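fyi for ur records
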Amino acid sequence: MPYEPPTHRVERSLRALTGAKVVAGVDEVGRGAWAGPVTVCAAVTGLRRPPEGLTDSKLISPGRRAELAGVLTDWVTAHALGHASPGEIDELGMTAALRLAAVRALEALPVRPDAVILDGSHDYLGPPWRVRTVVKGDRSCVAVAAASVIAKVRRDALMARLGDECAAFAFDRNAGYPSPVHRAALAELGPTPHHRLSWSYLDALPRWRHLKRTRTERTEQIGLF
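which gave:
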């Protein structure tokens, strides 16, 4: 099924309405996984024509996605990634962990963005960042689509490396998301150091339920809000 290619419409609007000169697209991957970090990519693209076939990473085959990510890392003006670890997710909750990863990505860019286009309907960044949320921004906005592809490919590669030490969990194939192999390995072997221990999947594993963590709020102490 063909999809409309992403455009710079939102970026142009931000530039016109706010005077922003540097606009970053931001997208995340790994939010629903049981293992591994949540990863956020911030990408700055300017207003150039994007590479052919750019769209939401979920709509692209793995092979084409990897190829496109290689093109994008040279094509974008700048990009950076930020991660929040499973331990940080357990301690802070997903919303605060997303913000932590996004801030790490944005602050790693060589130039601080004047505005951010954030995929989705929820602004998990907040002040001092000037944010425009866009539902399906990873499909409609060039910078967000670029961030989507780079984030997905980089996190998949990271999970494949983790899979080398946890072969039974097949992280190289499921990237830490639920799958039959992943579920079976959890039931037999229990969670690895890469698993999120505050998540409800442990409720269905009586043998390992004692490992479940209860989250404690520390967001103010680490300056997230």
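Residues 77 and 182 are 38 Å apart (CA to CA). thats all i got for now
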